[in-house]
Every structure is written in structure tokens, then in C-alpha cells.
Write a structure and sequence with these properties.
115 residues; 2 helices; 8 strands; alpha+beta
């Protein structure tokens, strides 16, 4: 099972201030849907941080996102383990297939693959 990237998600209503602050650390905006903005390192594009005001289709804001090679296979493993599925597996209009699961620490993890 391949993990492609891990991205911390910061809950915040102050998108511009976060863009400016993380810009000081070398990050640049690579995606902005209004409710979520992702900043990445130009020299290491998989080094990212996302800032979220809310989540367009889910009931909670995830603490982190993990992009995997095969989200359907990971979903089956996680579901069969008995872990709490917080948001069901579904295709999103912005081109990802994802689900949310609660980790043993109570953190919500967004597990996704790009279509």
C-alpha cells in the first residue's frame, strides 16, 4: 500500500493571513476552493499544508489528509478493522475519492486518492 503524501489541515477563517505567514516559510498557494487552500513548497511539491474554514461535504474538518494509491483498498482495510468511519467513502466534485476515519487519538484523518 503506497502513501503519496501527508498534509496537516489547519482549521482557520483567516486564509490570507495564513497564506502570508506560510509564504514566509517558502510555501506558495497551489489550490484554493474558497473553503480550503493548500500551500506547497516549490522545491518539494509534496511538502504541503492546508488551511480549511470548513469542509464542503463532510460534517467535520479533518486534522490531516493522507493521499494513498488505492483509497478503496484502504477503506476496506480500515472498515474491517472496526475503526470509526466519520465520513463515508465517496467521489467528490473536485476530483478526489475519499473517506474520513478517526484514529486511536481521536483525530480525524481524510484518506483520499485523486481520480
Amino acid at each position: 500500500m503506497a502513501v503519496r503524501r501527508v498534509v496537516p489541515n489547519i482549521q482557520s477563517e483567516t486564509m490570507q493571513e495564513n497564506r502570508d505567514f506560510y509564504g514566509l516559510l517558502g510555501f506558495e498557494e497551489v489550490m484554493n476552493h474558497g473553503w480550503i487552500m493548500t500551500l506547497a513548497s516549490p522545491s518539494a511539491p509534496a511538502a504541503q499544508v492546508s488551511v480549511m474554514a470548513d469542509d464542503k461535504t463532510a460534517p467535520v474538518i479533518p486534522d490531516m489528509s493522507v493521499e494513498v494509491e488505492d483509497v478503496d483498498a484502504v477503506y476496506t482495510l480500515v472498515r474491517d478493522s472496526g475503526a470509526e468511519i466519520v465520513h463515508p467513502l465517496q467521489d467528490e466534485e473536485w476530483g478526489v475519492r475519499r473517506f474520513f476515519v478517526r484514529d486511536p487519538n481521536g483525530r480525524v484523518v481524510n484518506v483520499l486518492s485523486h481520480r
